[in-house]
Amino acid sequence: MNAVRRHTILCVDDEPRSLETLERTLDEEFDVVCARSASEALQLLEQQRVAAVLCDQRMPGTSGVELLIRVRQQWPDTARLILSGYTDSEDIIRGLNEAGIFQYITKPWHPDHLLLALRNACRLVALESENTLLATEIRLTANQAESRIEEKKARLRQQFALDEIVRASDSPLQGICERVKRIAPYDIAVLINGPSGTGKELFARALHYNSLRADQPFVVENCGAMPDDLLASELFGHRKGAFTGAMHDHAGLFEQADGGTLFLDEIGDISPAFQVMLLRVLQEKEVRRVGDEKRRAVDVRIIAATNRDLEAEVAAGRFREDLYYRLAEMTMTLPPLAARRMDIPVLAGHFLRQASQSFAKPARGFSEEAMTALKHWHWPGNVRELQNEIRRMLVLAEQDLIGAELISPRLLRNLPDSDEPEPILEALLRRQEGWSEGSTLKDKTELLEKQLLRETMIRHRWNKSRAADELGLSRVGLRAKLERYGLEPLA
């Protein structure tokens, strides 16, 4: 058990008997040091820290008030108390104003009264010290938080700099990046078109972090397949009690993005009714929370994205023409990955390095056959599909060179015809363990079955029930095949 802290009290009096009485009274609760003059008291204060100074008012040479004025100037965090048998109003006023005396104690004093006064004085000193320390910590924490925020903003600006967008030197993205560089500084609405997985949000962030709003929020909302009431609550906010479950006021994403950029993904999926609501906000630059009458001005740059042909949607009457022109002051179209195959090796290498760092698993690159297959696949899921495939291949890899045998079977089975001297599938199968020119159809089928089993088990983390369900096997049948091929989890 920790000992209770004992505060140190400096008693100052020119009368020895008075000092002895004070020391006997205070000694059980405080550490007491004594001085018989102001000069001796000042010397003691130079040598050690005290919580409070208790001094007599009438002393030869320097009075108690004059001593405590010096104490306040040199040791302002020390409590100051006066003992006096006189009621000189001028001394009292001077003591309060110049010496900042905590309390006057009149003679003859009562021990309980004196002890209570000193306890309170020491408690006040401790609280002031804690408050000072807390204020310093808060200030340092605020400075550190502000510094971290600035560092994060700098990292984001670097991360989404146009030079950081991964592409080949002859990629169609070169022209798109130049276009982003020209239009980013201007507060103009941008509509980004392109198939899913082509990086529309990446370019939206590049527009934001290369604009004058880069230090302000970048807020994202996916509008696809979301009911109108929920989307209205998310974008415009709601008032407490506006609907069941609205337990408090909620600021919508327009308000959260005030001063910055709001990215509306899958904008082509919003209903005709919600198109009217969104158009009104964009025209008036004001939002009204659901269930509220108050309108709030917002300053937001809108970047929207869609994989639909909005011009065709307008022509078909499914998308409002006036909203389209509000969103499409400037348009950008991102090509599918199949239209920029020169980017595949660069992207694959980039994703492999990312996955290697994320999984703490070394990898030095792809085999020639693996890269050939990657370049010939048409990538319907675009960049996102490529990234997922690279991560999957690295997880399955047993060596640091990523071979073609790790590529998903569905991808290998559906590779288009190649102009390569040797068909890609044949080249890949030759990489399989145990493959030879004389291998029979049964041998080849078993090798493919082994690969499919291993890939399925790893994907399901060796959960036999889920793997058996996917493969259409019983647990007994699956176990037999695993034993037959010697498949087991990697150590």
Could you give the topology of this structure?
Elements: E1 8-12, H1 16-26, E2 31-35, H2 38-47, E3 52-56, H3 64-74, E4 79-84, H4 89-99, E5 103-106, H5 111-159, H6 173-183, E6 190-193, H7 200-209, E7 218-222, H8 228-236, E8 237-238, E9 250-251, H9 253-256, E10 261-265, H10 272-284, E11 286-288, E12 295-297, E13 301-306, H11 310-315, H12 321-327, E14 330-333, H13 344-359, E15 365-366, H14 368-376, H15 382-396, E16 401-402, H16 409-413, H17 424-429, H18 441-459, H19 464-471, H20 475-485
If you had to describe this structure to a student in words, what would you say it looks like?
It comes from Parathalassolituus penaei. Residues 8-122 form the Response regulatory domain. One of its GO terms (biological process) is regulation of DNA-templated transcription. This is Sigma-54 dependent transcriptional regulator. By secondary structure, this protein is of the alpha/beta class. The chain has 4 domains: 8-129, Response regulator (Rossmann fold, 3-Layer(aba) Sandwich); 160-335, P-loop containing nucleotide triphosphate hydrolases (Rossmann fold, 3-Layer(aba) Sandwich); 337-431, Helicase, Ruva Protein, domain 3, CATH 1.10.8.60; 438-491, Arc Repressor Mutant, subunit A. The chain has 20 helices and 16 strands. It has helices spanning 16-26, 38-47, 64-74, 89-99, 111-159, 173-183, 200-209, 228-236, 253-256, 272-284, 310-315, 321-327, 344-359, 368-376, 382-396, 409-413, 424-429, 441-459, 464-471, 475-485; strands at 8-12, 31-35, 52-56, 79-84, 103-106, 190-193, 218-222, 237-238, 250-251, 261-265, 286-288, 295-297, 301-306, 330-333, 365-366, 401-402. Strands 2-1-3-4-5 form a 5-stranded parallel β-sheet, with helices on both faces. The protein has a 5-stranded parallel β-sheet with strand order 7-10-13-6-14. Helix 13 (344-359) crosses helix 15 and helix 19 packs across helix 20. It starts with 7 loop residues before the first strand and ends in a 6-residue tail after the last helix.
